[in-house]
Amino acid sequence: MKMIVGLGNIGKEYDQTRHNVGFMTIDAFAQELGIKFKQDGPHHAFVAEGWIGTDKVLLVKPTTYMNLSGEAVAPLMSYYNLAIEDLLIIQDDMDMELGRLRLRTKGSAGGHNGIKSIISQLGTQSFNRLKFGIAHPKHEKQAVINFVLGKFNKDDAITVDQSIEVAKKMMQDFVQGQPMDQLMNQYN
Questions:
Q1: How would you label 142-179 residue by residue, b for 16+ Cβ within 10 Å and e otherwise?
Q2: Cβ–Cβ under 8 Å, residues 122 and 77
């Protein structure tokens, strides 16, 4: 079984914001698979289980808010007895142009508090990530927090939707066991 975690913040005020691109991506994948999220209270997450052929996947949206994402990820990994290689985190990345996708198998948090929490809870920086570019604020004076919690404009939303389509194909390949080095060569 593979576990794919989309990072974001719960609540209507955060829907469709840049920081919630992980939620947006995992929601689109769940919709494509025809599976629904259910609240998993003990694990502080919304969870959806599905199959791609004979391969099982667990889709996760932490309900801990972004900065405490590890408090949902680590217990779920333990509960399902998953190896670190079976985990994929989908995160937003301000240091990449809008819509760019990049797979990584390890690395620092790079200032991303959700990743920082996951590293802390898992005790390692070596886990799979799909970084989703949301770009940097165009105006230097625009506060980063306001930017990441802002919604995509109409043109940007089109770019994001196109990248989500690519991400869905990549997640399917991941669930079906394609090695990360091959996925990185194909999608980076």
A1: eeeeebbbbebeeeeeebbeebbeebbebbbbbbeeee
A2: yes
CB 157, CB 108: distance < 8 Å: no
Q: Helix or strand or coil: residue 35? A: coil
E strand or H helix at 6, and its extent? strand 2-6
Q: What is the sign, positive or negative, of the torsion defined by CA atoms of 128, 178, 183, 22?
A: negative
Task: Please name the residue ranges forming H helices in the chain.
Answer: 21-33, 70-79, 113-122, 144-148, 154-175, 180-187
Among residues 19, 43, 44, 112, which one is catalytic?
19
> What are 164-186's pLDDT values in tens digits?
999 999 999 999 999 999 999 99
What are the pLDDT digits (tens) for 2-36?
999 999 999 999 999 999 999 999 999 999 999 99
> Strand pairing of 2-6 and 55-62?
parallel
User: Using an 8 Å Cβ cutoff, are 129 and 110 in contact?
Assistant: no
Residues of 67-88 as b/e, b for ≥16 C-beta within 10 angstroms?
ebbbbbbbbbbeeeeeeeebbb
Active site residue 136: no
CB neighbourhood size of 93 (10 A): 22
